[in-house]
Amino acid sequence: MKTLIRSVKIVSKNSDLNGQVKDIFVENGNILHIENDINLEADEIIEGKNICVSIGWFDLRVHPKEPGNEYKESFQSMEAAALAGGFSEIALLPNTKPVVQSRESVNYLKRAGEKIKFHPMAAVTLKCEGKDFTEMIDLHQAGAVAFTDGEHPIQNPDIFLKTLQYLSQFGGVLINRPEDSNLTHFGQMHDGIMSTFLGMKGMPQMAEEIMLMRDLKLLEYVLNTPFTELPVDKSILHFSGISSAESVNLIRMGKDIGLPITCDVYAHQLCFTENDLADFNTNFKVNPPFRTQEDLDALWEGLEDGTIDAIASDHNPQDEESKKLEFDMAEFGVIGLETLFAAINTYNEKISLEELIEKITVNPRKILQLPIPSIAVGEKANLTVFSEDEEWVYREKKIISASKNSPFIGKTLRGKAIRVII
Length: 422
Fold this sequence. Notes:
Elements: E1 2-10, E2 21-27, E3 30-35, E4 44-46, E5 51-55, E6 57-62, H1 75-85, E7 87-92, H2 103-112, E8 117-120, H3 136-142, H4 157-168, E9 174-176, H5 181-184, E10 189-190, H6 193-198, E11 202-203, H7 205-223, E12 237-239, H8 245-256, E13 261-266, H9 293-304, E14 310-312, H10 320-323, H11 340-347, H12 353-358, H13 362-367, E15 383-393, E16 412-421
Parallel strand pairs: 1-4, 1-5, 6-7, 7-8, 9-12, 10-11, 12-13, 13-14
Antiparallel strand pairs: 1-2, 2-3, 5-15, 15-16
Helix pairs in contact: 4-7, 7-8, 8-9
């Protein structure tokens, strides 16, 4: 297969080619030429007005529904949605049925990707119940890229502490979404003026912030434990789904004192606030919940100054029976693979395109300690071709995911993936 990409702007912050407009010729998965005006026969020619190319996009947090809930999303529809959204690689949470807690389940997910790469994350505890540990070394050797209980934040501080100590022995990565579930029990949305106005039980920011403070303190303890050895310049602890201004400050302070931590924010959290829930649209029911304008501004500032390392979709398909209910009965979650780049590109007012792309290409791979592709002659192709300025309307009938639970339905977005070459 020979593919020619004509007159494409290269977006790769750390490359000498960054910002240059070139032709790129790919044959049998290898980048053979990056030049001006390549005149070679090709099976496929990709061209367009003001198109760009970067290394393949990487999503740090995707909820697979197969095995167990294929009616919400199959591997096939998830992969198709990822390709439409510009992703060449995605990291999968372990909350399937059965839970990803064995070598066999890790290998099963690794083989499930046909056109893109699936990177399975394994459970910290059996059945993600927060009680008994999985065989993490065995799972690491099988190819698990990180350890997390995924949809279930680790509530037990002793489990959390021992996990950090265990993973530090082989350089594993713990991913946790900070939430004290005792403070969010039965919560439906952000605890604020809008929840009071709508008569809904709120989910306070302090549930996230208290858990963050706990986790940072436990990490400090582990670092001061004799014989603890950590990989140089690598994170052992990653916080997923930061949503409040104080959480950004806590992460910033932790990095300032040298803690080996990273964090991400979900794309939809950068676009909406609690006020968008005024009409009880369950497509806006997410966890962590949409918070205040002050929190949203702080998230963008955290991205701008590097406190927040990556942007994830938290793609969580839910069928109609899970969403078309009274608000307090509906499931949490939105789909986001198809809209991640377009959403952040549309709502972005602070960050350069190069920095935005770095949050969904280089940094996610660094966090998971995976190889970082490059756009260079002789390299294997792992590319996403996209338009920065194409405007389009996200319509329900054109959604590729098997589920349709998106807060962006009917909205005009700017920027769109054109082609993934891997």
